[in-house]
């Protein structure tokens, strides 16, 4: 690493995917300079501790299930060691040199350290103060929130990072939470052999999803042997033996969890995983130095921070609390970079490229459980709440292509339609590999297409995607 | 089966998927009556001899390849007997009773026999003459064309039907042809253990596809051990021993094929498969009785036959020669049925629903080779020929999602763009399971979306579909 300059055109605090993209787009095809300040690994939570390792742990289980349900193919598994090694490959053994090289290739300087705002266009890092000529971008993301349960912190619970970076599979795991992280972690821990129990405070998993999707994921987990205790939460946690064993690893004895709620009692486990929400990573970011309150950083559709004069401060990714998904953070970052570039060059912000329009009500998301859940746009409930006159069509995915795909194919699909305009507002698909079915719905929702238009978009036979035809036919009645 | 009535509102000749859909849509939500005349099996070529059995034979090989390339999963195969049994299940052991039941449930009468036109609104079948009050729909499809090669017919070559319905895997197979049927048959025959050689008259496989797709399929077949003799065709075929063994099966000794062209010589095989194009199944259809010439039946966008007065004669599916794909035949049939219903009820043909608009330049197709090829709309060459100012963007599919999907993932994707309007004209994807990626492109092409709009359709991370983002970024430059 070279000694950082005192001035850059663009300074990004946080080197995850959103920060990387913002820096890249802000200086592309120009002579502007940029620095990314990162205190951990360039590539961020997603690359090393979240999306990549979790999907690397999940994918072999999916492939095995597909192979086991195909007559003529003999499949065994999982070889846990091989799965963990493949996971290690995807997180590059926590070496970010390829990402640093990417930054260098794109003329972005990487500065190691904790960055914090120190006033207008000023950023402190490692005892030095840097000045940004055009823009400072906040991209620090979030961190796991640990609920205030007696004994929980002292028990050194696993957070999502520990679950994705496990080196041995614990025999017994209790997961606290019922959201995406909790459901995915339950899926891979179970597929790798752990006995898993979920403590879910509410009455359902995946509160933001369509009810049928919640039910199918709960059924899938239950069928895999994961008890889900709905309406339950930890009242207290006890773990007498906890010892650091170096390199951030912890050796702990069994954990006892007192459960309160619908099914009170006591659970014992070898690890407790807390997946009970996220908190903004802004505590030491110096927000007060520019007059901002603590917490998430609010932005407009140009990703410009509200309440700060001069159009120099931006926030992209999870830290702005618009939507906590890597691909949407990157989307915001592309828009943000374009906005910074245009403003730096005194170009008007003309055209749709300069506004993040898709991260409110047109957000795609895939939950890599078994079955997978893929959704975009509004659920029926959200559409009604937003005031739309809503019609829905919902049916099992049962077409030639799904039958051919695997003998145990089970899926379900739903569309949410604005009856006034005939326009598709949202879609949810559940089933094996439906994550790859989602983009068709995303294109339709983002473009605001009517079902009359979609009638002429013919799915190829015999693919799984022919369920689109069934949905349109069912809607027609 | 009941004795057919003398009159129906709608008479459909040919009970394949297109015929079934035309009848269904023409009488839905009405008291109209319909009959389908079928000389073989209701469900047609696609259900028993083409799409379904071929994909049933191909799918296990795909699943095995995916499993073999996933560390942690141990997979063996293929068990040929199990694969053939699964195929038998998909063709219902050539029993069409479930399709006949579907027809009955939808108030469509099934008449067994060979139907032929006998004048205006008249159809002969089994020695009786039926009258159609509103419409006659021709949906007889095509049959395999056998080239005029000395000794070929006498050698009782396999056509696609035989290859999909094989009971034993021949040790050595020569395939004549380089189109979709030939490439798919080569793929499954090889995966089931046959030694396969392809004789391809032209310089490439899959003449209508993008050049990179042709190359990748040729590379895949070659890597699987299939020699492809380009610029070659059979000059003569010899097979001394041929005997019928009943139930349509043939026992034949070895076949000798004299090859002419780029690599002249002699090949010996246990079966020769002819996949050298199709011919319209209209020879005995009585086209002359209504003043039509022999051959394919030309229709307008309402699927109404050109050159026949009175808007009573329609043709859907392969027989009209617009596009020979099951899903597009069904699409035409839906439009046709809607047109028949509207005309029968004296409603105007208002709106896009009453015109087949997607079966010219917006046709999706999946070729289930290894790698798969999925395409929609115009190739770059076709777009230029049609007079568009064309730009293309083409790159390898190499995103987090593809790396996660399988260790050997190799794919490529291309977009064809009208530079004047920024609108997507076509797309081609090559790689494992890209058939399920296609519908997003189909939606975009059919809706005529611009790349500026697609910029806001964000693929979910980390799915394979994120290659869309790479394409859009590459296009932006």
From TrEMBL, chains A, B:
Cofactor note: Binds 1 FAD per subunit.
Chain residues that bind FAD: 55, 115, 318
Co-factor requirement: FAD
Keywords of the record: FAD, Flavoprotein, NAD, Nucleotide-binding
Entry keyword annotation includes Thylakoid: no
Binding sites annotated in the UniProt record for NAD(+): 177-184, 277
Residues in Pyridine nucleotide-disulphide oxidoreductase dimerisation domain copies: 363-467
A biological process from GO: 2-oxoglutarate metabolic process
Entry's family note: Belongs to the class-I pyridine nucleotide-disulfide oxidoreductase family.
Protein name (Swiss-Prot/TrEMBL): NAD(P)/FAD-dependent oxidoreductase
Organism: Nocardia bovistercoris
